[in-house]
Design goal:
Layout: H1 25-34, H2 43-50, H3 61-65, H4 73-83, H5 94-104, H6 112-128, H7 132-143, H8 150-162, H9 166-179, H10 184-206, H11 219-232, E1 259-260, E2 268-276, E3 286-295, E4 298-299, E5 306-310, H12 321-327, H13 331-335, H14 340-351, E6 355-358, H15 361-375, E7 383-386, H16 387-390, H17 395-398, H18 407-413, H19 424-441, H20 450-458
Parallel strand pairs: 1-7, 2-6, 6-7
Antiparallel strand pairs: 2-3, 3-4, 3-5
């Protein structure tokens, strides 16, 4: 049986007949609409909320509490119960909200601050529904007012940011911070909005792509509305093809399968390594490529013979905290890098016709290389040599019993130092050193002289 939200006694309604005559329903609607169930500020209300199918439905009691109020007070508090302390109403409630908004917003029974609160909610609803012209008309009226609730400030600043009017957004944020300087929650929220505005402005200054709407459905239509609106206020904007998808990738069944060689009789090779967002080559992406050219079994660690570059992940794949901890490559660093369409062709040009020598490259690296090649329209025709497989025949000699051995453990056994494990270039150089050391066990090819090496490299 329901309980009276004033005294807690069992009743057939929200408020018992004893408490009803003594209740200020306007004040009660305000308190219920903004209450956060579970906060502990009102034990009785927390208990009532727990008995509901969803605790946050507690604020919907306002619909019953406001039923005896006159228009526009009844409709106003019902809207407030839907939005709560948020600047916006949920998407499913927006059609209902639009009807309420237009019905009461000009009613003289509203205070100016209440009217502005409705304006602020309507502003957010319209621009989130891609109705930019309607949003702009409301924004102009709100901007000219001196009585703006913080939620209105928030939507006003956000609207100006996403429509690339960064100076106006700054003014709105500064005004809000001044007026609500004693409210820590508002200050935190608006400082976050200030950071968002600054980042978008930085993109504009750097010539990078600024905000574009990206809904899951009807994206082209939403973007057209956005571009048309920006054009109407004198801002030129275009919708570029995504950097990572300038054109479709080479179909998987049309791309050559990686070819492995186990013959060590090659006179030059490129040792390489990659770092990735994860281990699944179907969905993860390369974030760093490192490589070194080796000729005549000599390693020359100079800029001329090395390749190292970060790569922007495909498909906006994020660098996980685990990968960042392992490699030291942050998501921000990866996303500031050039896309694979630019980096990968340069890498394959660096490789030339050399054998690609890697560690566990057949089961891991080559699969990522295929994906990078497909999306950059760069066909890899080089053969792969896997040092991990080559090392299998030396495990007994090295006293290794594990079924699989890591690059680091193998390097330690051979007395080879890796100064920066899990970074592509350092691991590529270590792989080359491990291979040459293992190759000495077979008695193959003694190192060439440095003079011969440099002479040959000039022709490579």
């Amino acid at each position: 049986m329901p309980k009276c939200i004033i005294c807690g006694k069992n009743t057939d309604a929200c408020i018992c007949n004893i408490c009803k005559p003594k209740t200020d329903f306007e004040k009660l609607c305000s308190e219920v609409a903004s209450y956060q169930p579970g906060s502990g500020k009102n034990i009785l209300w927390d208990e009532i909320a727990k008995e509901l199918s969803r605790p946050y439905h507690f604020k919907n009691l306002v619909f019953a509490l406001s039923s005896d109020l006159d228009t526009p007070r009844k409709e106003y508090w019902q809207v407030m119960s839907i939005s709560g302390s948020s600047p916006n109403v949920p998407k499913p409630s927006r059609p209902w909200f639009y009807d309420m908004y237009h019905a009461i917003v000009q009613n003289p029974g509203l205070l100016q601050e209440e009217r502005n609160r409705l304006h602020g909610i309507a502003l957010g609803a319209y621009y989130m529904d891609y109705a930019y012209q309607e949003a702009d008309e409301i924004a102009a009226e709100l901007y000219a007012s001196n009585e703006i609730p913080w939620q209105g400030y928030y939507n006003l600043a956000d609207f100006y940011t996403i429509t690339r009017r960064y100076e106006l957004a700054d003014e709105v944020i500064a005004d809000c911070l001044q007026r609500y300087s004693d409210d820590a929650s508002v200050v935190k929220t608006m400082n976050s909005q200030s950071e968002k505005n600054a980042k978008q402005r930085e993109k504009a200054i750097a010539g990078k792509q600024e905000y574009l709407p990206n809904p899951k459905e009807n994206r082209d239509e939403a973007r057209k509305k956005y571009i048309d609106f920006l054009s109407s206020i004198g801002i030129d904007a275009t919708v570029p093809a995504p950097a990572n998808r300038a054109r479709k990738a080479i179909p998987r069944d049309q791309y050559p399968t990686p070819v492995e060689t186990r013959d060590t009789d090659f006179d030059h090779f490129v040792a390489f390594d990659i770092e990735t967002t994860g281990r699944n080559s179907k969905i993860d992406s390369i974030i760093e490529i490192g490589a070194i050219k080796v000729f005549g079994d000599q390693i020359v660690e100079s800029e001329q013979f090395t390749f190292q570059e970060l790569v922007k992940p495909l498909d906006y794949k994020k660098v996980s905290p685990e990968i960042e901890a392992l490699t030291g490559i942050s998501n921000a660093e990866a996303y500031a890098a050039r896309p694979v369409q630019e980096v990968f062709p340069e890498f394959i040009n660096f490789v030339g016709d050399s054998v690609l020598l890697g560690f566990n490259c057949i089961n891991f690296d080559s699969r990522f290389m295929v994906r990078a090649g497909r999306y950059s329209y760069t066909v890899i025709e080089n053969k792969y040599f896997d040092v991990m497989r080559f090392a299998d025949s030396f495990k007994e000699k090295l006293g290794i019993n594990a079924k699989k051995v890591s690059l680091q453990k193998l390097a330690d056994k051979l007395g080879i130092e890796n100064p920066q494990a899990h970074r592509a270039l350092a691991d590529a150089i270590t792989t080359a050193k491990v291979f040459l050391k293992l190759k000495e066990f077979t008695g193959q090819d003694q190192p060439a002289s440095m003079d011969d090496l440099l002479g040959d490299l000039d022709n490579w």
